[in-house]
Amino acid sequence: MAVLIDSDTKVICQGFTGQLATYHMERAITYGTKVGGGVVPGKGGQTHLGLPVFDTVAEAVDATGATATAIFVPPASAATAIEEAIDAEMPLAVCITERVPVLDMVRVKCRLDDAKTRLIGPNSQGIIAPGRCKIGVMPAHLERQGNIGIASRSASLTSEIIDQTTAQRLGQSTSIGIGGDPVHGIGFIECLELFLDDPETKGIILLGEIGGSDEEDAAEFLKSARPDKPVVAYVAGHHAPTERRMGHAGTVNVFGGGSAAEKCDALATAGVHIAPNAAEIGSTMRRALTG
Amino acid sequence: MNIHEYQAKKLLRDFDLPTPSGGVAATPAEAASLTRDLGGTRWAVKAQVHAGGRAQARGVRLVDSADAAGDAARDLLGSRIVTTQTGPEGKAVRRVYVEQAVDVDRELYLAILVDRSVGRLAFIGSEQGGDDIEQRAAADPASILRLVTTPDRGLDRTAAADFAAQLGLTGPQGDAAIAIMESMYRAFIACDAGLIEINPLAVTNSGDVMALDVKMTLDDNALFRHEELEVLRDVDEVDPTEVEAKRYELNFVKLDGDIGVMVNGAGLALATVDLLKERGGEPADFMDVRPVATRDQIATGFKMLLSNPKVRAILVNIYGGGILRCDTVADGIATACQDSGLRVPLVLRAAGTNMEMARKTLISRGVTVTFADDMMDAADKVVAAAKGA
Q1: pTM of the predicted model, to two decimals?
Q2: How far is A48 from chain B (nearest CA, A)?
Q3: Which residues 26-45 of B are in CB contact (within 8 Å) with A?
C-alpha cells in the first residue's frame, strides 16, 4: 500500500488547460494515473487531452467521482482553487503552484483546520506512488516501487534521492513533496504518521532545509512516537549565508528555526540517522536498514 | 522585498502608527533644512540602508543644531557602513533620515510576522528592545512573548491588552500599545507584509508610546497586487548581478569562492554548495535555474559564471525532468561557450530526462566537458579542477 494515493485514485486537474498542467497531466496519464478530467471556469463542456473539462470542482467531482485534485492555477488564484477543493470536500489536494502569497496561505490554513481535505503544497513537486499513481511534476523513469517513504521540502533534491534509493535497490513506497513554502498543508509530522502506519514502508527519509522549524517539530514528534522503522534525514543549507534568501528556502529568522546544524542536532537527539551530505542519503538509509 | 526605514514609517503613518516627525535627506543641506521644518531642539540623523545594527556602527548620530545635522549627513552620505548585518563589505549610504529626538524612558521590542510553525500571524514582544535582541532571544527564548492571531477573528482586544500588560504597558500606555498593535495588524494585511518590526518601541519620559525604528519587508509573492508598493524597491541595495539574474529566471546569490555553480532547484543547489564545501571546495555562487528557464536564459546564467574573474572551474548539476530538460541546459551552455569562450574546466552531472541528449549536444558543439556519474563524483572532479587550474 502506498500512502494517500493508490492505483485506483481518480484525479482531476484544476487549471487543466494551462501549459504546465497540460504537459504534466499528459505524462501522468501515460504513467497510468487515473485522470477523470479537469476544471477551468468558463471552459466547462470542452474536451482537453480527450477528457471532459468542467466549470467547477463540485461538478467535476459529481461527474467523475474524483477524490484527488492536482492544482496548477496561477499564484493569484491558487488559494481560491484550494478553497474550492475544500468546499467540495475533496480528500486530497496537491498544489503545484509556486509563489503563492503567504497571507493567502494563512487564510487557507485556517480553513484546513476543520476540513475534510488534506493539502499537499503549495510549491510542491507532487506525490508519487511508483507503479501506481503520479500527481505532479516529478520526472518518472528512475523511481521503482519499493519500501522507502520520502517526505521532502525540495523538489529537486527529491528526484536525486529517488535516484539514490532506486540505485540502492530499495525503491520507494510513496514520495511526498510537502513543498518549500513557509505556510503549507501537511508537513513532516503528518508524513511520518502516514509512513509509520504503512506496512509497505520500511524506512523513512526526510529531506529538509534551512528556514522555519519543520525539522525541529518533526524531532519533537519522533521523541514521543518511538518509531519502529529507521528515519534518515538530510538538511540542506549548512553553508548558506545567513540573512539571504536562497530560492524558496526563505530567510533564516531567529524566531523561526535554527541553522542546518541545529536542525540535524535536534533530529539526531530524536534517534534520526543524519546523512552527512546529499550524495550519501541512499547509502545512509541502506546502513540504517541493515545495521 | 526590503524597504527603508523612512519608507516604512511613511507607509505605517497612513495606518496611524505613532512615530516622531521626520523626513528623508539626500544632501547635507537637505538634512540641515529638515531640522528647521521639523522643529524641536534635538534630532537623530540616521543612515538609510537595508540592514540593522546601525547604532553600534555610528550610523545614528544625535545632533542639536542645523549645522550639526548637516555635518552628520555629510559624514554619513557617500560612506559605507559596516554592521553585523551588512557583511564585511558594508553598504553605501545614499540617504539619511532626520527625525526629532525623543527622551526615552524605556525601550521595548514589538514585531508582527507569520509564525511558520502554526501558519498564523503572530506578534512577538520583549520588555527589552535594542540591537542585540537576536542574541538575547537565542540565550533566553522564554523572554520572548508571543501572541497568535487567526484570520477569522483578527486581533483580539483582550488578548492584546494582556500582551501589552506583560510588556509592562497598562493604563493609557496599554491603550496606546493596543492601538499600535491594531495599526500593525491592519498594515500587515493591507500591504501583504513579510515582517513589521518595531525596535525600539519607546516609552518616552512624557509617557507616550512610539515607534523609534521600524523595519518592514513585503511579501515578494504578493507584489503583483501592490503596484504602489513595487515602486518602493531600491535596486541600489541589491547586488546588480543578482537583480539582473532575476530577469532571466535565475535565483543567484554571489559567494566568495572559485567554483561556479549552476543547479536546477533551490534544495539541490543548497545541497550542492554544501557538498562542495565538504569536499574541500569553495563555491563562487548559488545559482538555481527555475523550471521555466529557456535556453537563452540559461546561456545568460552561464555567462555570469564565466564573467566572474575568481571562477577557476564550473559545476553544473542538473536533474532533468519536469519541464526543464537536460538538453535545454546543454543547449544554453553550448551557446554561452560559443559566445564567450569557455576559459575554465567544466564538470557536468546531468541526470534524468534527456541526459544522453545533453552529453551529445555538448560534445557535438565542441564544448570541453568532464562528465560525472553522480553528485559525489561531480563534486570531487570540480574541486580537483579548481585546485589544479
Answers
A1: 0.92
A2: 19
A3: none
Mean model confidence pLDDT for chain B? 91
Q: Which of A193, A183, A152 is nearest to A78 (CA)?
A: A183
Q: Tell me which of B5, B30, B197, B237 is the catalytic residue.
A: B197
Bond from prior residue into B345 cis (ω within 30 degrees of 0): no
- State whether residue B218 sits within 8 Å of chain A by CB: no
Reference A159, options B324, B319, B358; nearest CA is B319
Q: Which of A212, A159, A169 is nearest to A187 (CA)?
A: A212
Query: How far is residue A167's CA from residue A64's CA, in Å, rounded to a whole number?
Result: 38
B148 touches chain A (CB under 8 A): no
Give pLDDT tens digits for B96-120: 999 999 999 999 999 999 998 889 9
Q: Are the C-beta atoms of residues B39 and B20 closer than 8 Å to each other?
A: no
Say how far apart CA B141 and CA B127 lie, in whole Å.
13
B117 and A255 within 8 Å at the Cβ level: the answer is: no
User: Given CB atoms, is B130 within the 8 Å cutoff of chain A?
Assistant: no
List the grid coordinates of A254.
531567529
Chosen from B132, B150, B274 to mutate, greatest number of chain A CBs within 10 A: B274
Nearest-by-CA chain A residue for B272 = A278
Cα distances (angstroms) measured from residue B284 to each of B73, B307, B314, B375: 36, 12, 9, 18
**Nearest residue in A to B239, CA atom:** A244
Q: What is the ipTM of this complex?
A: 0.90
**Which regions of chain A does DSSP assign to beta strands (E)?**
10-14, 34-39, 47-48, 51-54, 68-71, 92-95, 118-120, 126-129, 133-136, 145-152, 172-177, 203-209, 231-236, 273-274
pLDDT in tens, B146-200: 999 998 888 999 999 999 999 999 999 999 999 999 999 999 999 999 999 999 9
A239: annotated active-site residue: no
Cis peptide before A122 (omega within 30 of 0): yes
